[in-house]
Each structure stands twice: as C-alpha cells, then as structure tokens.
Amino acid sequence: MSATDSTARRARMVELVARLAPGEGYTRSRLDSVSLMRCERPVQRTPALYEPSIVIVVQGRKRAFHNDRAYVYDAQHYLALAVPLPFETETEASADEPMFGIALRIDPSAIAELALSLDRMRPDSEVPPATMVASPMDERMSDAAVRLLEALCDPAESALLAPAIAREIAFLALTGEQGGSLRAAMAQGGHFGRIAKALRRIHDQYDRKLDVTSLAGEASMSVPAFHARFKAVTAASPIQYIKAMRLHQARLLMIRNGCAAADAARRVGYESASQFNREFKRMFGRPPLEEARELQRILRVSEPVQATAGRAASSY
C-alpha cells in the first residue's frame, strides 16, 4: 500500500468515525458487537477493563500497560485481546485532534472455533500464547475497517454486510503477524485454554460467589497450580482478578446507569459498602463518586446515530 493510499484510508476512517460518534465516550453502532470511541482530551494512565476484542485506533494514540509491558495502538497498530483483562491505559488526544477508534467485541466461542479451524488448515510452528498483542495495521485490515465503517452508516448494510466484515477482521487478526499467539491463547486445550475458560466464567458471573477451589477444580488443576497459571496469564492472583472485575463493573454501573455507589457495590457482589469504598479508592485513586464524575464523558455510552449517513465518495 502506497503512502498516499494509506493516508487516504486513514482520512476516510477518521471521517466515518467522526460521523458515527458525534459525542465523547463510546457510541453504539447498528451492529451490537461494534462500538465507536471518541475522546477529546488526554487521559493519564488509569485502570481499564476490556472484553475479548479488537481495538482499532484511527486517530490519536492509546497505550496499554500489562505485566510490565507497554502496548501502543494507534493509526499504525491495532490491539487484540484474547481474554477479558484488566490493565492500565493512557490516551493521547485533544479537542483539535480527538482520539477516534473502533472497538470490536469478539465472541470467545466463535473465535476459538475459527482459530481451531485455521490451525487445522494452516498449522504454524509452535508459538507461545499471548493474552494481548499490538499488531501492525496492514492494507487488508485497513481496507476491512473502512468497509465496516461504511456499512455501519446504512441500516440495511449494517444488518446484511457488517457481520461478515466483522468476522473478516477477526480472521485477519488471527492470521496476522501475531495471529499464532492469539490462536494459541484461544485454543481450548492446554493450561492456557483452561485458564481462559475460568476467566470467561469470572467475567460472566462476577456478581456471584466465586471461590478459587471451585475454579481450580473446573480447570482440572490443584489450587497451587491454578494460582500459578492464572497469575502467569493475567499478572494477578484469582482473588485480585475477581476484585478488579467487580470494581470495574461497579464503576461502569455508576457512570453509565447512574447507580449510587452502595447500589453498584451490591449489584457486583459486595456485602460491605465500606469495604467497597476502601477497595475502590485503592484501585482507582479516588472515591467512587469522584471517579464517576471525572470519567463521565470518557466512558459513557451513547445510542447509535439514527440518521442514514449514506456513502460519501471514497478518495482512495
């Protein structure tokens, strides 16, 4: 792809995300698995929680920090996560040049099936699994991202074309420069696969009583082995991970649903409001109300843009 084509594609993506996400925060698209991201100010390093997803930043820059490593995702790189993962992020953005992005949530079961099919058809040499990768945006991924955004501008195309393009983007991530590591992470067998299954259970049932012994038993591991393998994948102990999941979900309930702190604490499984307040401040650095007020614009979710935007002429 020539530099001129690359610049034109990037400009096209910026134009489309600006149209589909007119306000700060996350804007739902007409396809349930896709949200558009817009941020108009820099955000210092702060705890975050992503579901299994592919995140494409088309303008601005984000950095993820996990397990003593930094991952840059910007106009030249996309971020892919194989499992639900708490980590830290920072954002470079301004009112003049907002951070624009696409967040594509992936269904772990469907992607694991795709990964297994790929491995049968084109087996790679053995590669270590990775929970998170930042990979270069090549011509095919950029082209697919443009086509997805264009499809999301039209109700019929959102329903009939966008799901196939989203699957194509997942396919490209699994066959890209670091696709082998992602496929290894999503495989159902082996220690990594069993830890990934436990992470998905925690993600789906964080508001219920969860104990490490049961999780280890379901993974067919002893408690010490499960603890060690779990920490190798997430950089946190099982108890720390469960706590982080509950606190992040409580933060979102306060920001997006307007829940009071005590109600959010109860809904994510806390029995003690004072314990919740202590642990929330320890993780986020601020009391619940202050944190929710500070991040209201950045983490709020808006409904899809309803007007049919139509297809503007492409310039590439």
TrEMBL record:
<dbReference type="InterPro" id="IPR009057">
    <property type="entry name" value="Homeodomain-like_sf"/>
</dbReference>
<dbReference type="Pfam" id="PF12833">
    <property type="entry name" value="HTH_18"/>
</dbReference>
<dbReference type="GO" id="GO:0003700">
    <property type="term" value="F:DNA-binding transcription factor activity"/>
</dbReference>
<feature type="domain" description="HTH araC/xylS-type">
    <location>
        <begin position="196"/>
        <end position="294"/>
    </location>
</feature>
<keyword id="KW-0804">Transcription</keyword>
<dbReference type="Pfam" id="PF06719">
    <property type="entry name" value="AraC_N"/>
</dbReference>
<dbReference type="InterPro" id="IPR009594">
    <property type="entry name" value="Tscrpt_reg_HTH_AraC_N"/>
</dbReference>
<keyword id="KW-0805">Transcription regulation</keyword>
<dbReference type="GO" id="GO:0043565">
    <property type="term" value="F:sequence-specific DNA binding"/>
</dbReference>
<dbReference type="InterPro" id="IPR018060">
    <property type="entry name" value="HTH_AraC"/>
</dbReference>
<protein>
    <submittedName>
        <fullName>Transcriptional regulator, AraC family</fullName>
    </submittedName>
</protein>
